[in-house]
Amino acid sequence: MGILSELYEAFRRVNGYAMGAIGLLVTVVGIFLLPSWSLSARLLVPIGVIVLIVILTLLDAVYDLRLRRARLPRVIRANPPGAPYGGARAMLLLEKSELYSHDSVVSVYSRQKDFELLIGVGFVATVQQNGLIQVAVDSIPDDAVAETWQRVLQNNVDELSQLLVKPSVPNSILLER
User: Fold this and answer.
1) What's the DSSP call for residue 171?
2) Sign of the Cα pseudo-torsion (6, 12, 16, 17, in order)
3) What is the pLDDT of residues 106-131, one digit of tens each?
4) Which of 20, 37, 45, 59 has the fewest CB neighbours in a 10 Å radius?
5) CA dist 73 → 146, 165, 171 (Å)
6) 52/94 same-domain check
7) Where are the beta strands (DSSP E) in 83-152?
8) How many domains does the chain have?
């Protein structure tokens, strides 16, 4: 998304149209119904509303950008690997994220009782044109997590919600490869 579309979305989220309409209404009321107001007081209201809208829009845009960059993308779906990824054990489809690029190495964790258990290592197979990310999981540490992967491949919603795909790999795994 470009910067103008980001700002427009932020403007919509802070109800910029509604705030502008209220500011316009207060200005019209000030001009026609309160003629005793000085010219500077009449100008202060619309200028104040415009400044408030701009500040809130920029704050919302910055907050949204930080929030999106700070979180890991959610796993949308899992599938058995296709033919081009014959060595892979599973394919995961992730939400859009700027943290990942084509062919980067990733690790897959499952949250279990406040701990993150490493259940796989893989790579970004592709970043689709729509921004969704396909991850091929080609290494599973041991058979102890086989049941977890079975539920993941069945697209068990509870299991998918517990998955974390991180754009890094533990050093011990890299040394084994």
Assistant:
1) H
2) positive
3) 999 999 888 999 999 999 999 999 99
4) 59
5) 23, 8, 22
6) no
7) 90-94, 105-112, 115-127, 133-139
8) 2
